[in-house]
Amino acid sequence: MRNIDTAFGHVRSFTMLVILVSTIICCYTLYKSFTSITLMQDKVYILVNGKALEAYSSDRKDNVPVEARDHVKTFHGFFFTLDPDDKVIKTNITKALYLADDTAKRVYDNLKENGYYSGIISGNISQRISIDSITIDTNQYPYDFKCYAKQNIIRTTSILNRNLITEGTLRNVSRSDNNPHGFLIERWNTIENKDLGVENRK
User: Fold this and answer.
1) Which of 38, 94, 111, 143 is least surrounded by Cβ atoms within 10 Å, i.e. has the fewest?
2) Cβ distance 183 to 99 under 8 Å?
3) What is this structure's pTM?
4) How does pLDDT run across 137-182, given as a tens digit for each residue?
């Protein structure tokens, strides 16, 4: 009887140990499974030229500075990239105006009334912009920004270089094909737009 009680105690202890170890293994397996599923849901595979490229999704708040800077850069690129072609000018300005409020539209209307765009077409002038830097203040909403850039106005015989500084705010809006970043530039204002010098073209 004593041996039976001892054996029973050993079996019970061994059984409890097996149950405990099995529970720990099951809990660990479930944890790793949920972790793996969560990681897989954050991955996106993009097919480019027959090759699958892996990308990761993230919350918008993690990408606000990057997306905001690109939004400002895209707007200025469209607004200030001009060629002596009425269709090109209208296409670029239309794209730019999707990214900003009526303050940009008023600037465009003023330039148009003053004959700026007709002068570009009649003078066979091209205009390019290169962004030096963009600062975004994400500590307050709407986000304040400043854009520092250089303009090149290319004429037949010369290139006029200009320094351009603009400022404004960014407000969140819905994303769309015309506004993929989901921002709208408001209170857009040119702080400085002065000539730096003229280069003769060879």
Assistant:
1) 38
2) yes
3) 0.69
4) 988 888 999 999 999 999 888 999 999 999 999 999 988 889 988 8
Structure tokens at 61: 């708040």
Q: State pLDDT tens for residues 92-104.
A: 999 999 999 999 9
Strand partners, 120: none
Q: DSSP string of the chain?
A: -HHHHHHHHHHHHHHHHHHHHHHHHHHHHHHHHHHHHHHHHTEEEEEETTEEEEEE---HHHHHHHHHHHHHHHHHHHHH-B-S-HHHHHHHHHHHHTTB-HHHHHHHHHHHHTTHHHHHHHTT-EEEEEEEEEEEETTSSSEEEEEEEEEEEE-SSEEEEEEEEEEEEEEE----SS-TT-EEEEEEEEEEEEEEEEEE--
Burial of 145 (0-12, 13-18, 19+ CB in 10 A): buried
Residue type for position 175 = R
Q: Are strands 158-172 and 51-56 parallel, antiparallel or unpaired?
A: unpaired
Q: Where are the domains of the chain?
A: 2-46, 60-200
Name the residue among 150, 187, 172, 188 with its Cα closest to residue 68: 172
d(CA 159, CA 80): 15
The answer for residues whose C-beta is within 8 angstroms of residue 117's C-beta and 6 or more apart is 82, 86, 89, 111
